[in-house]
Design a protein that fits this description.
Length: 552
């Protein structure tokens, strides 16, 4: 056990352990008896992650009865995005909270195995795509695939991932005054009690936020070496793959497949459902879908839709995949790397003692206040199913905290702006063109390139991040569409493939969902800062002068 509040109880041994590890990043070291610095937290986290079997025990930051003898208002089981933000909100409202997490850090899987590496890989994919496209022109050398190493990029990430966790541990203790127990799993005893390392803690409420993991398909050979998901790719990859077969058609499949292909690892995607048409994705405009998939194929990714994976071939290490094609024929494809992108499910065995109601897909059922079938238990984030996004986890945690502290607050996460990466940012919000035409009699759109253009010679939407594409092969520069109700002039939906749009779409989504909405005239009044989604502003201004709106 390590008590980071009490220098007399395990803290001296902790200091000795940290001192033996070397110099913290940036020389960030505190004096004996002082709270851990960010650099010291990073050293400790990295050491525990690399040597999990060392007898460390839990890392305790729990108030003594002299410091705070109140009953806990909530114990947050899981200190990821939802648990940490929910706990911080509850603490800020004057409540008492405790976070318990099996990992030696707060922040969950996002900085450790999921969101942060995904963004690093997507940035690499974008850079590699441009380098390959521009090779031999201007200052770009001939592209050398041997230098584009998946393993090298994974190792780069692993060397730096302890710092974001360290910041969250330090911030949670020093700035947010949160109580937490890390590096020790919680056993849920009942709706008010958890046990950690033989010690029981009770609270008026439990908030469950332990996330989800990849749901592997039940096919022969899937357990072999050489089969990875987003988490095991980080932890277990120990060779440089030369070819890849992806089983599944989720966002993860598209994102990681685009990264693998960009490095020169020939990638094939096998998916039962058509890409970007799964039930967990909403408001995918068909024209946007077509452009995204066409550009993936243009870059060499092979896509087989409507297929059934049957077996991962190999004798202890994957050598190929057998699948049934859409025509019913059985096909075998060789590969040295299999990646599973079939979506995630939570491990609810952790909560058997609670008898929680679940839906037919294995997610916890909760109302809009995050309350489950057990009134004193709330569930947040990925435990509730789609969307499995960071904003949802954080806002679920805050919603749970607000209700626990006596404020009735409901959170509806059925509508939201969305995005994923290929070698582009793909961002959208609101209605698709087809959905808009079902609801409104007079719909127009602003779109680039237009439907009747030759996209190979139409260099819009040229924008920051795609200017070199626009001047060398215009079809690669991107695509976008703004959907408008011509009668009310309100914007109904926005869809963008390119670069630099994500920040703008957070605000576009908010504006179009206001009761008064957001019109083409409102858009035209904005002051654009050059390009990217600001094309919407320019085209709105070009068309807003017409009393009777028409397409552009």
């Amino acid at each position: 056990m390590i008590d980071v509040r009490n220098p007399e109880d395990g803290f001296a041994a902790l200091r000795a352990r940290i001192d033996a590890l070397g110099e913290p990043v940036g020389g960030d070291r505190g004096e004996a008896g002082e709270p851990l610095t960010v650099g010291e937290w990073a050293l400790l986290i990295e050491d525990i992650v690399e040597k999990p079997d060392d007898a460390t025990g839990g890392i305790y930051n729990v108030a003594t009865p002299e410091e705070d003898d109140r009953e806990y208002d909530a114990i947050f089981v899981g200190g990821g995005a939802g648990g940490r933000f929910g706990a911080a909100y509850l603490r800020a409202r004057g409540g008492r909270q405790l976070i318990v997490d099996a990992w030696p850090f707060l922040g969950g899987s996002c900085p450790h195995q999921a969101c942060v590496p995904h963004h690093l890989f997507s940035e690499c994919a974008r850079e590699l795509d441009l380098a390959r496209h521009m090779q031999g022109r201007l200052w770009y050398p001939e592209f050398d695939e041997s230098k584009a190493s998946i393993l090298g990029i994974v190792e780069l990430f692993k060397k730096g991932r302890s710092l974001p966790h360290a910041v969250m541990n330090w911030q949670s203790k020093q700035q947010l005054d949160l109580e937490f127990i890390l590096n020790a799993p919680a056993t849920v005893i009942d709706e008010h009690t958890v046990e950690v390392e033989g010690r029981q803690f009770r609270a008026r409420n439990l908030v469950l936020g332990t996330g989800a993991r990849t749901a592997y398909p039940d096919i022969s050979g899937i357990e072999q070496n050489g089969v990875f998901d987003f988490a095991s790719l980080i932890e277990d990859l120990d060779y440089e793959p030369t070819s890849c077969v992806i089983i599944g058609g989720s966002k993860v499949a598209l994102e990681y497949g685009s990264f693998f292909q960009a490095t020169g690892c020939q990638t094939t995607i096998l998916t039962r459902s058509p890409l970007l048409r799964t039930a967990s994705l909403h408001h995918i405009d068909e024209d946007m879908r077509t452009y995204v998939i066409d550009m993936m194929v243009d870059r060499g990714i092979v896509i087989h839709e409507g297929v059934e994976p049957l077996e991962v071939l190999g004798d202890g290490r994957a050598t190929g995949v057998r699948y049934r094609g859409s025509d019913g024929e059985t096909v075998e494809i060789e590969t040295d790397f299999v990646f599973v992108g079939t979506g995630e499910r939570p491990n609810l065995k952790l909560y058997d003692a609670l008898g929680l109601e679940t839906d037919d897909r294995g997610f916890v059922v909760a109302d809009s206040t995050m309350k489950t079938s057990s009134p004193s238990v709330r569930a947040i984030g990925d435990l509730l199913g789609s969307p499995m996004e960071m904003f949802k986890a954080r806002k679920c945690g805050m919603a749970a905290a607000r209700n626990i502290m006596g404020e009735h607050y409901e959170y509806d996460y059925s509508e939201y702006p969305d995005f994923f990466h290929t070698t582009y940012e793909v961002t959208w919000c609101g209605l698709t063109e087809a959905e808009a035409r079902e609801r409104y009699p007079n719909v127009i759109k602003l779109q680039m390139p237009p439907d009747d253009s030759d996209p190979e010679s139409f260099p819009l939407p040229a924008a920051e991040g795609s200017m070199l594409y626009a001047f060398t092969r215009p079809i690669l520069s991107g695509w976008f569409k703004l959907v408008i109700d011509a009668d009310s002039r309100r914007i109904l939906g926005a869809h963008h493939v390119g670069f630099g749009a994500k920040d703008a779409f957070q605000y576009i989504d908010y504006l179009i969902r206001r009761p008064e909405g957001w019109t083409i005239d409102d858009m035209a009044e904005l002051s654009e800062l050059f390009l990217n989604p600001e094309h919407f502003i320019q085209l709105s201004r070009l068309r807003a002068g017409k009393q009777q709106l028409v397409n552009l």
